[in-house]
Task: inverse folding
């Protein structure tokens, strides 16, 4: 826990922008001005200066922050004080500023995320850790904690190594989340996928000793209105991706424990939806598999069936994510969803196009893509739309099947992957596909290296605007 709600003597944290430091100091005592000058404090982002009182105790702490945008002051707040959650001395603190309540909530969320550590597998994991605590109003705590818990869920799942996060463990996470929110849990496992018509998921995961599965969570708002819209979240849950028989080089296989990052994202998003009780019906579908190699592995050149009964020629077994997703998307359409959003660590091509820190957004609705991008601006995230360019559809033509699972040309790979998924979505249902890295290659304030929730704030902000 990084927060407290009761503390009578918490230490003030005073946020200061670099170009406003002189204005602030002009209103302070000679002692404070001299102390700051001797400390060489310049209010650079993530820096701080401890100001003592006459008794030698901490009187306040000046914290350097970035300048907020005049159009959207909240956007700069979430990471403004996140580094302090691990760098300040042990103690209780509160933010002392003229920020709005929402700005303070955003900063508190960043504080909680800045305290994140993935140390379950270290021998000192259970040893108590003395950390600084941020004071919140009691009515703010649940809201802040919901966001921190959602990000933590995503990060923990992605960071957990594959020998501890195979389809069966992923299933347990979903079951626990369902129990937490009084939601319904169900799944189809192994050969049940064939009898229940999920042949593509089965084909990808059948070579592993860890049976593939289609995992479902269903929840309804407390309003209990049968006319509530149905939102379906679809997540790619490939718990480890060797590349299959088209084996990945070791360099690109090293972090493939994160290939279930899409599943982690939809669970984090579902947690927020249920915590805030958005007025809708929610369906979460996770296609979970281990893309392993054995004598029963699917092969290049194979033709497999799908739930939509479109046959797929396998050009490359490393393009497996779209195969498991297409069965889940077909189910989403069968259930008359009002909106479908999928998250997937789908293509390296998306990373080439927009880099590792920006999720790529595709949609069959320009309005939906525009509104989600606007929500990303509201939250200070960057989530960038790429075109669902139908003229590239020819690259997925197969001479022997209805479609091939990837293009042999090698150009526009993120687009052709999205076009493949588009083949399994009813065009009268709004759909967004988010191709996400789910991993920080570098450490930034509040965002350590490793598993990361990307686009989560944007999509939840959009859902709040649409359904509240």
Result:
């Amino acid at each position: 826990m990084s927060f407290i709600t009761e503390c009578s003597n918490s230490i003030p944290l005073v946020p200061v922008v670099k170009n406003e430091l002189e204005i602030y100091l002009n209103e302070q005592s000679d002692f404070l001005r001299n102390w700051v000058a001797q400390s060489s404090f310049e209010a650079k982002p993530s820096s701080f200066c401890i100001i003592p009182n006459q008794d030698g105790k901490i009187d306040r702490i000046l914290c350097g922050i970035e300048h907020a945008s005049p159009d959207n002051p909240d956007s700069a707040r979430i990471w403004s004080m996140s580094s302090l959650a691990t760098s300040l001395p042990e103690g209780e603190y509160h933010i002392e500023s003229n920020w709005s309540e929402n700005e303070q909530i955003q900063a508190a969320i960043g504080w909680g995320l800045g305290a994140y550590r993935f140390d379950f597998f270290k021998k000192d994991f259970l040893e108590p850790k003395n950390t600084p605590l941020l004071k919140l109003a009691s009515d703010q705590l649940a809201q802040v904690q919901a966001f921190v818990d959602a990000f933590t869920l995503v990060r923990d799942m992605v960071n957990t190594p594959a020998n501890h996060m195979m389809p069966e463990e992923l299933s347990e996470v979903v079951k626990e989340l369902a129990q937490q929110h009084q939601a319904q849990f169900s799944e189809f496992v192994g050969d049940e996928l064939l009898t229940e018509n999920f042949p593509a998921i089965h084909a990808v995961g059948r070579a592993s000793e860890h049976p593939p599965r289609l995992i479902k969570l269903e929840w309804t708002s407390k309003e209990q209105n049968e006319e509530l819209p149905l939102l379906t979240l679809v997540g790619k849950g490939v718990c480890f991706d060797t590349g299959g028989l088209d084996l990945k080089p070791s360099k690109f296989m090293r972090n493939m424990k994160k290939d279930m990052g899409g599943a982690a994202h939809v669970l984090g998003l579902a947690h927020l939806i249920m915590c805030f009780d958005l007025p809708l019906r929610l369906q979460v579908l996770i296609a979970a598999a281990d893309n392993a190699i054995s004598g029963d592995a699917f092969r290049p050149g194979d033709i497999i069936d799908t739930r939509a009964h479109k046959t797929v020629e396998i050009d490359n077994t490393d393009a497996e994510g779209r195969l498991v997703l297409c069965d889940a998307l077909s189910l989403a359409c069968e259930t008359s969803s009002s909106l479908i959003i999928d998250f997937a660590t789908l293509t390296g091509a998306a990373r080439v196009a927009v880099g590792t820190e920006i999720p790529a957004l595709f949609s069959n609705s320009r309005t939906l893509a525009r509104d989600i991008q606007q929500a990303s601006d509201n939250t200070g995230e960057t989530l960038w739309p790429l075109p669902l360019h139908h003229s590239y559809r020819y690259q997925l033509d197969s001479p022997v099947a209805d479609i091939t699972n990837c293009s042999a040309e090698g150009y526009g790979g993120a687009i052709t992957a999205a076009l493949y998924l588009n083949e399994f979505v009813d065009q009268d249902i709004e759909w967004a596909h988010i191709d996400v890295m789910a991993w920080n290659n570098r450490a930034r304030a509040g965002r350590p290296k490793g598993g990361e929730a990307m686009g989560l704030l944007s999509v939840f902000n959009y859902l709040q605007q649409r359904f509240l």
